[in-house]
Write a structure and sequence with these properties.
The protein has 11 helices and 10 strands. By secondary structure, the chain is α/β, with parallel strands linked by helices.
Length: about 280
Amino acid sequence: MFAEMKTLVAQAQQGHYALLAINCVNMETARAAIRVAEQHRAPIILNLYQAHLAHFPADVALPLVKSLAEKAQVPVTLSLDHGKDPGHIHRCFRAGFSGLMIDASAFPLDENVQQTRAVVELAASAGVCVEGELGHLGDAPVYNHATNRDLMTNPADVAPFIARTGIDLLAVSVGTAHGMYPEGVTPEIDFDRLAAVYRESSVPLALHGGSGTPFGELARCPQFGVAKINVGAAVFDAGKNALLHTLCHDKSRDMDAVMAAMEEACMAAIEPYLEASGAIGKA
């Protein structure tokens, strides 16, 4: 079923688990997430990153995801991930996305508030869930613990930001980064900071950069108010590797078989993150 993201987030917060938000770029990646969610009776969010809209436009993605969701036995929803361009945000809203993330975290706080508030006002007429971001996530390929610390969310900014914007969900920076980490590099969640943010927040929290984060650390996050965990790079990496392996070892395989191999690899990559989220059996 296609579900309202606001409802799913509220249920996750109340149930002390996190919704897994899986980035998708086509039918196979979307279906992989839904199939895993169905196997484990878990609600699921499908994320569509703004930069991927060129490949998977909003007015194509929404009906495709909605069709898959209506056949599913678990709640499925679709959200824009890291929306920065107002035009893209408006197109996703008009298409019928249930969640909109506005990422103005690179701007000074007042500008972040202004841009975020504008999306909240847009979304209010349709009950769409709005996620804002405080702090900024670094890039995993060049991850540095000291540099990453400078980008983290300041707990003192949390309550005023929520009050001034009216967001439903707050993305925080507490030690993770976007992308895949170099070999031998493991991110560390600053749980003291996360706890301080949680104390100041009146809305559920979202953790981005889940890929490569130790599963034990992800599993602890819901007790500190995290109701959404984003995973993208690990799924894409698994799918890409499956495509390369299949094409390099058996060029005779038809395209549908090659894409099926990619889908299965994406499913395998999603499963341990779903287990860590605590959402299994919650649908």
